[in-house]
Amino acid sequence: MMRMVDLIIKKREGKTLSKEEIAFWINGYTKGEIPDYQTSAMCMAIVFQGMDEKEVTHLTACMEHSGQTLDLSRLKGIKVDKHSTGGVGDKTSLVLGPMVVACGATFAKLSGRGLGHTGGTLDKLEAIPSFDVHISGEQFIKQVNDIGIVLAGQTEALVPADKKMYALRDVTGTVESIPLIAASIMSKKLAAGTDTILLDVTVGSGAFMKDIVQAKALANLMVKIGQGLNRDTRAVISHMAEPLGLAIGNALEVKEAINALQGKGPEDLMELCYTCGAIILLQAKLATSIEQGRTKLEKVIADGSAFNLFVKMVIAQGGDPSFILKPEKFPLAKNIITIKAGKAGYIKSVNALEIGLAAMRLGGGRTTIEDSIDMAAGIVLTKKVGAKIKQNEVLAYVHTNKDLLAVSPIVDQVTNAFVISAHYVAKPQVILEIIGL
């Protein structure tokens, strides 16, 4: 008879768990037959001993099937999905989804909420008045078949094993394990039922992965898991040492996404969207090369068809389209504080983590999942790494509804996130590597 304690000891000693042993653990834990303390011990053993590729693939498959999985067979075309490991100012899905759908792809995406210094796609969408992220399965299918795109919240029935385990890992010091991170992300993506998955693995101060070696290891493992479970999976590794784009904060980021869809987006955001979009079009067999894919994406931005699809999605999900057509309708925070450069030079770094934490403290994020968000709060940068700056030139604007005295330390935090060098600094690369092409 199999016992959980024996499996913990086996993994503690660095041995490989079989498919049946992993299934015994995950199924028992999901049903409540295996207690938290034993799963916590197993996760700690994995942190120290790791897992091989086969073990992680078995773990992912067991977690994927721990609850319902979405059957998207009634959807037309090749169903594509994209996932980011998180960052600051990352509004990519809002721009990328309409772009690839305007080129003929079917974008059926389940998104999450932000926690800590990273923003969530659902929170950004809810900055649009009346936008509904909670839609039924039937509406999900109908909307995608009607207009090709949906951005909605994950249902409670999907991957319950991950929900239980992630909450446990968060309080037991077992989050930082590449096999556990990979299984957590990929189980949710696979359960969502799309034909292809593109992973944006961010790296830098504003990302979960702080160094490139870890980011590559995670990206490679997730691609192997996806391919091993017969899903076309690719990955990009992208730069997150500074925020993506210029806007950080929910309504501010929606406005920036609107600008991007109208061809006025920041250079780094557009580069990420064009590269990711071109890979997605390759996966959907709508392009034969990255270059051809990029040309198609540039066309749907130029002719307005990507923007029109975003408007259609907002209408389909109950949102007020007048805010998209006239973004100046989004309410501004009552206090907008200007931050200026103390000296001339070149922007050497803009610490994404500090900017993200500052935006959260302004009210633009949450420290616990129950916290409410001030949709107008956030930060708008005017300068990024590599930009030339004069003394007293504006670096950023801080948007807040909080009392000015209360936000003084946060303003200092934003100011100190900028490092100015007397010497020339080159702009950083946005895409550091592509995996699985």
Could you explain the architecture of this structure?
The chain has 437 residues and is an alpha/beta fold. It has 3 domains: 4-50, Transferase, Pyrimidine Nucleoside Phosphorylase, Chain C (Transferase, Pyrimidine Nucleoside Phosphorylase, Chain A, domain 3, Up-down Bundle), CATH 1.20.970; 79-325, Nucleoside phosphorylase/phosphoribosyltransferase catalytic domain (Pyrimidine Nucleoside Phosphorylase, Chain A, domain 2); 332-421, Pyrimidine nucleoside phosphorylase-like, C-terminal domain (Aldehyde Oxidoreductase, domain 3), CATH 3.90.1170. Helices cover 47% and strands 16% of the residues. The protein has helices at 4-12, 19-31, 36-49, 53-64, 92-102, 121-125, 137-147, 160-172, 178-191, 212-228, 250-261, 267-283, 290-302, 305-316, 322-325, 352-364, 404-417, and strands at 79-84, 106-111, 149-153, 196-203, 232-239, 247-248, 335-340, 345-350, 378-381, 388-389, 394-400, 418-421, 431-435. The strands form 3 sheets. A 6-stranded mixed sheet has the order 3-2-1-4-5-13, sandwiched between helices. It has a 4-stranded antiparallel sheet with strand order 6-9-11-7, with helices on both faces. A 3-stranded antiparallel sheet has the order 10-8-12. Helix 1 (4-12) runs parallel beside helix 3, helix 4 packs across helix 10 (212-228) and helix 9 crosses helix 10. It starts with a helix and ends with a strand. The mean pLDDT is 94.
